Amino acid sequence: MERNKNTKRAAGLSRRKVLKGAAATAGLAVGAGAVTGFPMVWAQALKDITIHHVGAPYSAIIDIANQANKDLPFKIEMQALAHDALRNRLVTQPKSVDIADTEYFFLQQLIPRGDILQAVDLDKFKYWDQVVPIFTKGEYPDGRKVSRQGVLPYEVQYLDAADGKAFHDGPTKWASGIPMIYNADTLGIRPDLVKRDINSWSELLNPEFKGKSAILDVPEIGIMDAAMAIEARGDIQYVDKGNMTREEIDKTIAILIDAKKSGQFRAFWSTFDESVNLMASGEVVIQSMWSPAVAAVRSRGIPCYYAPLKEGYRAWASSMSLMKHLDGIRLEAAYEYLNWYHSGWEGAFIARQGYYSAVPETAKKFMSEDEWGYWYEGKAAQGDIIDPYGNVMEKAGAVRDGGAFWERMGNVACWNTVMDESRYMTRKWNEFVAA
Predict the structure, then answer these.
(1) 240 and 325 inside one domain
(2) Do 208 and 228 reside in the same domain of the chain?
(3) Pair 100, 113 in one domain
């Protein structure tokens, strides 16, 4: 069923020193990111500004806020919330947030309201021409189109006007937000317990792993993993896994309920730690998993890998958006924070967890040659690979599961999504979990 897209998707020099030193000037333009120009009367007032960044736990990380507070002349406060709590906060308490850090599919619900977010003026964002083309063009570097099953970020990336409440089909100077953290997800495997190669999503439902498989209990995401497995097994050929009809939802849930009643699933997890513990304990040998969780299992000395499956990856991406209430000095500070965020330090930090930066070239400047080779180029590590907290994640000689950046992101089958029948899907998903 074809959807109406417009309706559905309706390093050396401290920046703190630079900005502090600008108190005697009328404008600023230095450091890791571009400053749009603070009036002289605002320079002293910057120290009293606090920007509230609220997002998901995998992106709203206090260490990033701490670094921003070292580099910027104003304060960043960061809070992490689960998906549902985050969405509720943005809708019911919008003035308590300045930077909305959300998955792209949230924008379908937030932008059309017109009273929560404001457009990002891309003339004020320094790095747009360096953002990977998945977001700016909906393409890969070789010109191939990125899958539009689910919510491809490009489809909700541009707005039709500064005060627009509709998405624009093609580039404009107005963005719904700036892409930040993203990845391509697949299944986590315990090779010592599975004892054979896994190359298809269908294995998630294979009776061979009865009582030893698990799935993510976030309806919008879990059903996509389930659909990848169901389609791979040949049960259903979806028109668009990311926007199922009621009939497709019913068929999908019926298959899942049958699998659950037969004892296929050991657990339904909803947090990072749950997924790590299930896999590390050996209770589960195959499951929906996030890349850093796989690394966390391996850091315990337990074999675990992220299978590059033949059907492709389920991808996701998060965006930084400006809240509607921002204006004046607070809005200019928010733009400066967007530029700092993409200037490289944060990109290198999240790379060491297995995530990707929207501006890889700036992240590269904050990574060693060996780190860049391992995380982005698919090369064997020359030395131990360290996580952001100094822990050994991989030993010398390891190669990243799935290979280089474009091998992984170049093989996306679908994206995290909110369906037209979202409420119906969530109700049916909960029936499955409770069955």
Answers:
(1) no
(2) yes
(3) yes
Distance CA 111, CA 117 (A): 6
Task: Classify strands 99-103 and 313-323 as parallel, antiparallel or unpaired.
Answer: antiparallel
Collapsing DSSP states into helix, strand and coil, what is residue 94?
Answer: helix
**Cα–Cα distance between 104 and 321 in angstroms, integer?**
10
Please identify which residue in the block is written with the tokens 């109700």: 427
Q: 304: domain range?
A: 185-312+411-434
Q: Which of 85, 86, 94, 89 is nearest to 115 (CA)?
A: 94
DSSP three-state, residue 231: helix
Dump pLDDT digits (tens) for 96-136.
999 999 999 999 999 999 999 999 999 999 999 999 999 99
Interatomic CA distance for residues 99 and 334, integer angstroms: 7
412-432 tens-digit pLDDT:
999 999 999 999 999 999 999
> According to DSSP H, which parts of 236-386 are helical?
246-261, 272-281, 291-298, 328-341, 345-351, 360-364, 369-375
- Say what the pTM is: 0.86
